[in-house]
Automatic annotation (TrEMBL):
This is Transcriptional regulator, ArsR family protein. It comes from Halosimplex carlsbadense 2-9-1. It comes from the Archaea.
Length: 86
C-alpha cells in the first residue's frame, strides 16, 4: 500500500456505470487506499478473491485500472487506477 490515492476521473466514472457492483467497489477501494495487490483488495473490500479477480478483469478491460508486477514479490501484481494521462 502506498498511502497515495488517485481519484476516479469523469471519463472513468462514465465507464463504471455499466460495470457490476463488485467492480465499482474495487475501484472505490483503490481510489481510497491507493495501489494494492489482489489479496489486499480482497481483504479491504471484504470480497472473495474470485470476485475481485473478475472485477479487476472488467476494470482493466475498460481501462479504469492498470496493473504492474510487484517489486516486492514478482509473483504478484499491483493494481492502480488509471489516470487520464496514462
Amino acid at each position: 500500500m502506498t498511502g497515495r490515492s488517485t481519484s476516479i476521473h469523469d471519463t472513468n466514472r462514465a465507464a463504471l456505470t455499466d460495470l457490476p457492483p463488485s467492480a465499482k467497489l474495487v475501484a472505490k477501494t483503490l481510489e481510497y487506499e491507493g495501489d494494492l495487490t489482489q489479496s489486499q483488495i480482497s481483504e479491504s473490500a471484504r470480497l472473495p478473491q474470485r470476485t475481485v479477480r473478475f472485477a479487476l478483469t472488467k476494470l482493466e478491460d475498460n481501462n479504469i485500472v492498470r496493473s504492474r508486477i510487484s517489486f516486492m514479490d514478482a509473483r504478484k501484481r499491483v493494481y492502480t487506477l488509471s489516470t487520464e494521462e496514462g
